[in-house]
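A note from the maintainers: we've had questions about how concatenated examples are separated. There is no special marker in the raw files; a new sequence line simply starts the next protein. For clarity in this README we add a label.
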Amino acid sequence: MLTVAVLISGTGSNLRALLEAASEPGYPARVVAVGADRPADGLQHAADFGIPTFTVPFRAYGSREEWGAELAAQLRAWKPDLVVLSGLMRLLPAAVVAEFAPNIINTHPAYLPEFPGAHGVRDALAAGVEHTGASVIVVDEGVDSGPVLAQERVPVLPGDTEASLHDRIKPVERRLLIDVVRRIATGELNLRTPASS
């Protein structure tokens, strides 16, 4: 059984979907802890499923590195096989990435390498593209620059707002995340050589 720790910053809709999938008989992964960098609403999802939580408030530390050291210590305590960033709105310090790589994955609301960064949906709209998408990637030290594990196109419709487009991307993100975690758990996807899987 693959053990997973999830890190969030916000409402945790992807987390909720993963928790629901992991509660199904036969799903080969389970969430062992959920952490956040602020008092995030999404921690309630973990509570609903009886999953332990921890918070490492970014603003409580003098530097990103100090914050990262505490975050790594909290993760280490749970010995997760996989760390999932699910709406964590902070770049992990290099030392955290180095400790847990390549077993850290992230979801992103764009068809990477298109529109990386914190505003992928808004940037796609501003660019006037006909399609954007959702991606699941391996986290590296860059901004949404790691190897792509799964992605799918989502059309941009006439009259779309950032909110309406994001509402159509989110279900795709959730489905891709649940499938990627399943494929990692079953050995179908090897994070050390994702391109060959």
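[label: protein 2]
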Amino acid sequence: MVAVLHLRIISPADRTARVERLLADDVAATHVVVFPGVARDPAGDLITCDVAREGASALLGRLRGLGLERDGSIMLETVDVSLSRSADRAERRAPGFGVDAVVWEQIEQATGEESRLSAAYLVFMAVATVIAGIGVLLDQPILIVGAMVVGPEFGPLAALCVGLVRRRPRLAGRALGALAVGFPVGMAVTVLTTWLLDAAGLVSKDMLLADRPLTSFIWQPDALSWVVGFLAGVAGMLSLTSAKAGTLVGVLISVTTVPAAANAAVALSYGVTDEAAGSAVQLLVNVTAIVLAGVLTLLVQRVAWHRPGRRVTVDPRG
């Protein structure tokens, strides 16, 4: 099996011949099929093909250069299984490795969806922060880990990195807005929840002031906090660009953004300002480290992918 993406193109009739030539000349493209005149909205010819992942971004750029996204349509989807000698040949001929390839259009689309300030995003943020707040009071790392997994904040952080590198101010602005609203909403809900739980006798200020050896790192940032955040940012961005979702789960449980916000909220609800300040610093350290790491990772990938001398392997059998 190879890393293959499927392209579905609607082309105005006067540009179809140019699209066909473009696909025929691209070593990464295969399985080209043309259906003349079948498209109705927008009107035109339907063209489908498969493309090796490592050649997808360059091909998409050339197709967009023909104005197809404006006058027609370009759709891209992942192929889970491809059993084809032709696809194998295209993958071998395309320069680079599919796992290293960055399909910028796909990344922009994915992170753009993750950065929307939706009701679901705010609910996830509130739920994650409340869980982390309870975990802080109980000194239970398992609840902290659960909150890290539930928290949706890595999506906007990744979108911010992509927006900065790709110079997409709207994407970067939307991501900043999601972060600027999401964390305060989660913290506000956590403050209210802490007051309600305290009134019900389920938690108390003494729990916050007691020794909490398993979770005290959340409000006591040090140099290692920045190192962990930076490494998590690198791993998180690589998991997105290489479509390795399993790696992303590991990233989520290594960063204390949501737990830091939760600890700050709980400390504020009880008026423990020094711990709230420490938690705020931890949150700032992690966010800045992740963004810096994400931006640097994308810049390195962009430079490395365009460097001369990348692997080009051609099957001698043709």
